[in-house]
Design goal:
The chain is α+β, with helices and mostly antiparallel strands. The chain has three helices and ten strands, in the order βαββββαβββββα.
Length: 179
């Protein structure tokens, strides 16, 4: 029986999974990435008592302003890696994997052949990509809505501890459960 080729996918990440160290420990590799991916009409907040965030849908603040979360678009995620991410994110419990659209910078070239992030009208060159994202599913009472989650602080103060106490044990449990 012939096996169908399993299609790779993408995933927008906005918290601890932006760290190459976390990805390497969880997936065994660092997938290709598109930085500066933007998910509109969402906000990112620390989960109370935890070192990781959740994102929730948030209406636009006005006609010219947008609540948005900047993250990374992971590329070429295999079906097995997607299952690992689902397990890690406790998909269906803490988070719900949802279809979203993110904006990613797309580069064009000016008349001198130099890369430009802006079109002739001064507007940013962006591409809209349909992807997956893990949306917080446990309501706002478990989030610190007063501020955004701080990725740099996570890297400086919590990354090593998080890798040892959360990511590596999770990878071991995943391997036992899904392989």
């Amino acid at each position: 029986m012939a096996h169908e080729a399993q299609k790779a996918t993408t995933c927008f990440v906005y918290g601890t999974l932006m760290s190459p160290d976390v990805l390497r420990a969880l997936l065994g590799r660092v997938p290709g990435m598109m930085p500066k991916a933007i998910l509109s009409n969402h906000s990112r907040h620390s989960v109370l008592g935890r070192v990781y965030p959740g994102i929730i849908p948030t209406p636009a603040a006005g006609p010219t302003t947008d609540n948005a979360v900047e993250g990374i678009l992971l590329l070429d995620i295999t079906p097995l890696e997607m299952r690992r991410l689902d397990w890690f994110e406790e998909e269906g419990v803490d988070y719900k994997r949802s279809n979203v659209q993110v904006k990613v910078p797309s580069c064009s070239f000016d008349e001198d052949g130099k890369p430009s992030e802006y079109d002739d009208g001064g507007n940013p060159n962006v591409e809209i990509i349909k992807t997956n994202a893990y949306i917080w599913a446990l309501g706002t009472s478990k989030l610190d809505l007063s501020r955004d989650w701080d990725y740099d602080m996570f890297l400086q103060k919590h990354l090593d501890w998080y890798l040892e106490t959360t990511v590596k044990p999770c990878r071991i449990a995943i391997e036992k459960e899904i392989l």
